[in-house]
Specification:
The complex is a heterodimer of chains A (about 500) and B (about 475). The longest helix of chain A is centred in the last third of the chain and has 32 residues. Chain A has a two-stranded antiparallel sheet with strand order 1-2. Chain A contains 22 helices and two strands. Helix content of chain A is about 75%, strand content about 5%. With about 500 residues, chain A is mainly α. Chain B has 20 helices and two strands. A two-stranded antiparallel ribbon of chain B has the order 1-2. In chain B, a hairpin with a 4-residue loop joins β1 and β2. By secondary structure, chain B is mainly α. The model of chain B has no long low-confidence stretch (mean pLDDT about 90). The chains are: A mainly alpha (about 500), B mainly alpha (about 475).
Chain lengths: ~500, ~475
């Protein structure tokens, strides 16, 4: 076997090592050092992830950049990592978002800077680990470990009700994942002592256990996505989290759930997935329609975006369970696009919050008079959130609607209502915050965005537009993998 | 008449310990008020000497002596080494605490050593009488240790409760043993197994005896419904003694269960399996639910111990070396976490102030971020969150449970541990999310600083590389069965 450069390990461990280095800078006397180390670490993390794209062979559905070492023999657990067309774009998204989060917290976070920056870097590495694990136990360890930094981020730097939100976030996600652990142990027994995910893909399981495993997975992933009706932790967590926390939560952590469906539920228990597809589609459509209506009524900007995230992620799960190429690819595009858009939306709210320390829509009005550049960016992201053609928000939603049209007209009809509701809640919020007369003396005193904020929003704006106009580089890398997945899902394992 | 002296070699570390206990007592008598550290140092030397003796005589072969009443096998050696290490760590952690409170006396050390000797005998016993002698030696030393602060009302009350309930438990155990003796006519563990296997004994009497034995074990492990003493004793005893009670005796209790149930009555697995299931589920339920309501940290940890003992019992249910080794791994992980947790509590105690309330953890991360971080690792580990060792302990046990076909039990176990996660998270919340109530610095001695850091690091490192300890547990079990 020829020696191959352990690229994936580098992508996983480099941010963690830098994160520990940031922790080591200690107290706030060294805040500036902590910030620069964090920026260097996250930028390097993005740089080393680029070869993942350039060296990726999109003609095969096999795992690439594979590394496989024994981790502990007692339970035959291996340090087995690799990527395919599903996980690679998500890793890139994560590596892309991390530097933005570091920069977003640059001046805003003044207390315990090293812990804040370190937590984000460590989490970035852990999330890369989740996306690249090919061993169920390794996956589980990364999956649970990702809770720890996020719990601290919400709890330490969050808003007034942060303790409640942090504990709710933690326990909710833990509930789901513990049952997944039982499912893994069951699969370990059934497969004769293997934790390899690829072995599970080939495992023949009768329908009843398949359904039980599906439900265990569903609880874990549905909480993370989050699907209706287990979404209630998300608005709380978002509202209380600091801006960076909200960005990572929406852009990255929600994708863990979606990824889980593609990596575990569909290929390991395809018959149960087909069997329960109707329920999944129903839950997804409820999320799209009902949560869209709830978003309309929100008075808090972060809560509104949080609910809109739930609705958009409803599209993702809808796409997965249509079992056709449009649906699954559209869902993947939607995940990446939602990463950009929701991140950008939370950054925009963060920009306002840093100035006025309020997230209430009613406290704003006429912001465009004072912050014209910001208003332009916010406009773009609001439009993208509403799914305007030409932005990345449109591509994914359109593909999923196409996919559902092939299955059932009414699915497509209900899904398409999002184009109306999405536009309604986003643009109505935009109108109340940005347009109109200057609402208060506080708004009168607003200053337009700084260079740092401009750069952040501009990078995201380019990403949103690029993916909206030319999504080919993204769909190309995932095409083969998704085709292979769909063939696999359509063949019974009974 | 020929008298053949028994082979003393397998019991060399016990004999050395016994001699040294007397030496410690005498040395302390002559050392005088200003040289209390002599007893402390001698105690540590004793533990080191025992460790050397056990380590050097280590072999995979099982050797018996004293007409088969005493056995020395791989499991016994490994457990004993763990016990020495744990007791030594307990003494290092509690040195400052006991000297602040005037407990740094020869009695403390000789009682600790006697208790340790009791544990060693329990671990190596292969006869019901030796088992009982070891257990009583341990228990009586512990009663006295709890009551060591004569002027403290809570401590005296706790000691009384501990003594009365402990005596009751011993009574149960003896009664059960006498039933088993009545049915089989032997007290030797190995002969007992053969007789039960040959079905030459009265099944009904055996089962009744087993019920009493399991009840006695339940008391000693503080499993529900025999747990009542644990919260009061944990709360009432001086923290250093609580640390001692909560750590090393659990290792001995593991050995005790192995000798009694597995080696002695392994053939009756179908009978004790069901009893353990009930004890385990109730312990996890009551322990985790009651812990939520506690505001006293020691009481909370007592309930947490109860729930962990429930989890530990699950390891025995699958009744194979896979399950036993997972239980052993669990108990080692548990002891490691308990040591660290109580060490942090003792750090928070200062000049007469007893850190007892969970609110004493408030703002610890601002007072000292390093110890807060170690406590964070310990709490996540107790809650079973990877990559800490507590997770792998749970994984190993759950794997054994699923392997035995009890999937519902595994589901119940994880649901209870979800409830348990809440009160561990609450400690983290107090440390990280709240403001400190005092800004008095935390200044441990350098030995505590090093040991506690190593302890916290071990919780993380053994979690990232669990193979060594898992392999050791499996090795210990496989070479003694």
């Amino acid at each position: 076997m020829s020696f191959e450069f352990p690229l994936l390990s580098l992508i996983i461990w480099l941010p963690i090592v830098f994160g520990v280095a940031v922790f080591a800078t200690g107290s706030d006397h060294n805040a500036q050092i902590a910030r620069w180390i964090a920026l260097a670490g996250s930028a390097l993390g993005l740089l080393v992830a680029i070869p993942l794209y350039t060296g990726f062979d999109s003609a095969t559905s096999a795992m690439q950049f594979v590394e496989n070492y024994v981790w502990f023999e007692r339970f035959n657990v291996n340090y087995h990592v690799g990527v395919d067309g599903i996980s690679m774009p998500l890793i890139l998204l994560n590596c892309f978002i991390t530097p933005l989060v570091v920069v977003a917290g640059w001046e805003v976070i003044k207390q315990r800077v090293s812990q804040y920056m370190g937590a984000f870097l460590v989490m970035s590495g852990i999330v890369n680990g989740v996306f690249s694990s090919l061993d169920a136990m390794l996956f589980y360890v990364f999956w649970e470990a990702s809770l720890i930094p996020m719990f601290l981020i919400i709890g330490i730097w969050g808003g007034p009700n942060r303790v409640y939100a942090a504990i709710k976030f933690f326990l909710y996600t833990l509930l789901g994942s513990l049952l997944m652990l039982i499912a893994f142990i069951y699969l370990y027994q059934t497969s004769g002592g293997s934790f390899s995910i690829q072995d599970y893909h080939q495992l023949e399981i009768p329908l009843t256990p398949q359904i039980l495993i599906f439900i265990a997975f569903l609880l874990a992933f549905a909480v993370k996505v989050p699907m209706w009706p287990v979404h209630t932790w998300l608005p709380d967590a978002h509202v209380e989290a600091p801006t960076g926390g909200s960005v990572v939560l929406a852009a990255i952590l929600l994708k863990l759930g979606g990824y889980g469906f593609l990596r575990f539920s569909l290929p390991i228990v395809p018959d149960a997935s087909n069997y329960l597809a109707g329920m999944m589609i129903a839950l997804s459509l409820i999320a799209v329609v009902y949560i869209g209506l709830i978003a309309l009524m929100q008075a808090d900007m972060k809560k509104l975006i949080a609910y809109s995230s739930v609705a958009h992620m409803g599209f993702v799960t809808l796409g997965f369970f249509l079992f056709n190429a449009y649906g699954v690819e559209g869902a993947m595009v939607q995940m990446i696009s939602h990463g950009f858009i929701s991140g950008a939306m939370f950054l925009c709210v963060g920009v306002l919050y840093d100035r006025l320390h309020s997230r209430q829509i009613a406290d704003y009005g006429g912001v465009v008079n004072k912050m014209p550049v910001f208003a332009a960016f916010f406009m773009l992201f609001a439009m993208a959130n509403a799914g305007l053609p030409g932005t990345s928000g449109f591509v994914g939603e359109f593909m999923v609607i196409m996919g559902s049209m092939k299955i059932n007209f009414w699915y497509a009809f209900l899904a398409a209502t999002t184009l109306i509701f999405g536009a309604a809640y986003t643009l109505w919020m935009y109108k109340r915050v940005i347009f109109g007369a200057v609402a208060s003396p506080a708004v009168e005193g607003l200053e337009d965005i700084s260079k740092r904020e401009f750069v952040l929003l501009a990078i995201l704006a380019i990403a949103v537009l690029w993916l909206g106009v030319y999504p080919y580089p993204l769909t190309e890398v995932m095409h083969t993998t998704i085709d292979h997945l769909l063939i696999h899902v359509s063949s019974s394992k009974l | 008449m020929n008298f053949i002296p028994p082979d003393f070699a397998p019991a060399s570390s016990e004999i050395f310990m016994l001699i040294m206990v007397c030496v410690v007592m005498l040395a302390d008598l002559t050392a005088g008020e200003n040289r209390r550290y002599v007893a402390y140092l001698l105690t540590q030397v004793t533990l080191l000497g025992c460790a050397l003796l056990t380590f050097l005589s280590f072999s995979t072969e099982t050797s018996q002596t004293f007409s088969g009443m005493f056995v020395d096998d791989a499991m016994a050696d490994i457990l004993k080494l763990m016990v020495y290490g744990t007791v030594s760590a307990v003494l290092i952690y509690s040195h400052a605490y006991i000297s602040d409170r005037g407990m740094l006396r020869g009695e403390f050390f000789s009682l600790v050593l006697f208790a340790t000797l009791g544990m060693m005998v329990m671990i190596s016993a292969s006869h019901f009488l030796t088992l009982y002698i070891g257990l009583e030696l341990l228990s009586l030393s512990l009663y006295a240790l709890v009551a060591l602060r004569r002027d403290s009302v809570v401590a005296t009350e706790a000691a009384m409760k501990f003594f009365v309930l402990g005596a009751l438990a011993s009574g149960f155990l003896l009664y059960g043993m006498s039933m088993v003796y009545g049915a089989t006519g032997t007290l030797h563990v190995s002969q007992l197994a053969q007789i039960i296997q040959s079905e030459a004994s009265s099944r009904e009497v055996l089962v009744v005896g087993l019920v009493f034995i399991v009840a006695g074990i339940g008391f000693k492990l503080s499993a529900v419904p025999f747990h009542m003493w644990a919260p009061d004793v944990y709360q009432g005893a001086p923290t250093a003694v609580t640390l001692f009670i909560g750590s090393a005796p659990k290792l001995a209790a593991f050995g005790f269960v192995m000798r009694l149930l597995v080696e002695g009555m392994g053939e009756m697995v179908a009978d004790w399996q069901g009893m353990l299931v009930i004890l385990a589920v109730m312990s996890m339920a009551v322990g985790n639910l009651a812990a939520i309501a506690q505001t006293n940290i020691k009481r909370m940890l007592a309930y947490s111990t109860i729930s962990h003992m429930g989890f530990l019992l699950l390891g025995f249910i699958s009744a194979d070396s896979n399950g036993y080794s997972s239980a052993l791994f669990y108990v080692i992980a548990y002891v490691l976490m308990t040591l660290g947790t109580f060490a942090v509590i003792m750090l928070l105690c200062r000049n007469g102030f007893e850190a007892e309330n969970i609110n004493d953890f408030k703002g610890l991360s601002k007072r000292n971020s390093w110890y807060a971080f170690i406590t964070l690792l310990l709490m996540f580990s107790l809650a079973g969150i990877p990559p800490m060792i507590g997770f792998y302990a749970k994984l190993a046990v759950l794997q054994a449970v699923v392997n035995a076909g009890y999937i519902w039990l595994a589901v119940a176990a994880v649901l209870f541990s979800l409830i348990g996660a809440f009160y561990y998270l609450r400690i983290i919340k107090l440390m990280y999310f709240d403001e400190p109530e005092t800004d008095e610095p935390i200044l441990p001695n350098s030995d505590v600083r090093i040991l506690l850091s190593a302890n916290g690091f071990a919780v993380l490192a053994l979690g990232i590389f669990p193979q060594a300890l898992m392999g050791l547990s499996l090795y210990a079990i496989q070479n003694s069965m």
